[in-house]
Specification:
- The chain has 411 residues and is an all-alpha fold.
- Helix content is 77%, strand content 0%.
- The chain is built from 19 helices and no strands.
- The longest helix has 34 residues.
């Protein structure tokens, strides 16, 4: 039973990373604009995140080194500090967007004032982090997020043309005018990046140490990373299919969360709305907690400070202050009225830019026999890791120009 419940680390990481506010709206937009044509980006991103997550978990278990400890030793203090600052700014922006998303979802249920709900939700999430053990946080949000399976059921019930869906799994060059081609590139990079959001790997790596995994758990590490990422990819693909079926034929470009939720329950109307709302609330809340905790992990690991969710606050004051500060600052940013989707677009694109600076050190350590011993990368593992690093670097180089040229993906 302990092993089975341990899998929720991967589930929470996947659902909080794949199915957050940005992914719900962003992926539906991709389907609304390009049908099934970008399914391949989900598959590619999923393969990359499984490789990356497995290596991070293995390093955490064998070397007892989480991601930002590795970043510091491999990149040096100055480059590592720049990566830390960039990563934590991304975590903060994403946390602000997720908190706003929680308030929107609660408003849809209650009709109460969104700003009051935002403050209340932030306080409630802070209380959960303060009161719950790490395992219960991951189990609660990971398992509750499984309600998002309603998206898969909805997509299947709408009877997509499966041959066309299968065709979308293969990369194809867009046949559009210049703006259409740039837009296709923007959403391809964005979908790929959203699947690879760096905070989910930072959270997963730290969680492996929080749960005190041993070398005997390395098989479980691969299973958890693969199952969690595959489940997240399945739900993401279902959202893209729904965007293609529900919005594309009518020329609708979904830009708000409430519109996106309607696609998830389209075949069932009100019967599935509560399930979709609760599943979305679990995923978005989980993402807010992941980003807040990830920011705290990053700071403490980089500066070699005491950290740990289950440690008393007095024993890890910097860690406690950091995650609390992430939640409070995220709430303040959301209260300014900045649109959550604007924040998400920034986090997805800039997340792609930062990604190579955390992926590269991980590949280097995973193939270092002096550090990893018998658990070092095989030649095949290293080859796959370097191929994905090249692809990630190319996507990172294209991300900012595509954001500017397409005005953040406006059709």
């Amino acid at each position: 039973m302990t092993k089975i419940l341990g899998i929720t680390l991967g589930i929470m990481t996947a659902l909080g990373g794949f199915i957050d506010l940005g992914q719900i709206v962003f992926t539906l937009q991709a389907g609304a604009l390009f049908g099934y044509a970008l399914l391949w980006a989900i598959v590619l991103g999923t393969a990359a995140i499984i490789v990356y997550m497995e290596m991070c978990g293995r390093i955490a278990v064998v070397a007892r080194e989480p991601v930002f400890s590795v970043v510091r030793t491999q990149l040096g203090f100055k480059a590592g500090l720049a990566t830390l600052i960039a990563s934590n700014l991304l975590d903060l922006i994403t946390c602000a967007a997720e908190l706003a998303g929680v308030a929107i979802l609660l408003n849809l249920v209650s009709g109460w004032n969104e700003k009051l709900l935002l403050v209340a939700a932030t306080l409630a999430l802070g209380l959960i982090v303060h009161s719950f053990k790490f395992r219960w946080i991951e189990r609660t949000f990971g398992l509750a997020g499984l309600l998002m399976i309603v998206s898969v059921v909805s997509a299947v019930m709408l009877h997509p043309h499966w041959a066309t869906v299968a065709h979308g799994l293969l990369p194809t060059l867009p046949r559009h005018d210049l703006h259409g081609a740039l837009l296709y590139g923007y959403f391809a990079v964005g979908v790929f990046s959203a699947v690879l959001m760096v905070y989910e790997v930072h959270f997963y790596s730290s969680g492996a140490i929080e749960e005190d995994w041993k070398t005997k758990d390395l098989a479980e590490n691969f299973f958890v990373a693969s199952l969690g990422a595959t489940l997240g990819a399945l739900l993401t693909a279902a959202l893209l299919v729904l965007g293609a079926i529900v919005f594309r034929p009518h020329g609708i470009f979904p830009e708000i969360l409430s519109t996106s939720l309607m696609a998830e329950v389209f075949p069932f109307a009100q019967r599935a709305l509560i399930i979709a709302l609760l599943g979305s609330l679990a995923c978005v809340s989980g993402a807010a907690l992941e980003t807040a905790l990830s920011g705290a992990y990053n700071i403490c690991q980089f500066f070699n400070l005491q950290w740990g969710k289950d440690m008393p606050a007095k024993s890890a004051p910097a860690y406690t202050l950091a995650w609390t500060g992430m939640l409070v600052l995220g709430m303040v940013i959301s209260l300014t009225g900045i649109r959550p989707l604007t924040l998400i677009n920034l986090s997805v694109i800039f997340g792609m830019v930062v990604m190579p600076f955390t992926y590269y050190p991980i590949v280097r350590v995973a193939e270092d026999k002096k550090i990893m011993g018998a658990h070092v990368n095989s030649k095949a593992d290293s080859a796959v890791g370097w191929v994905f690093l090249v692809l990630i670097t190319l996507a990172a180089a294209a991300a900012l120009p595509l954001m500017v040229l397409t005005h953040s993906g406006q059709p």
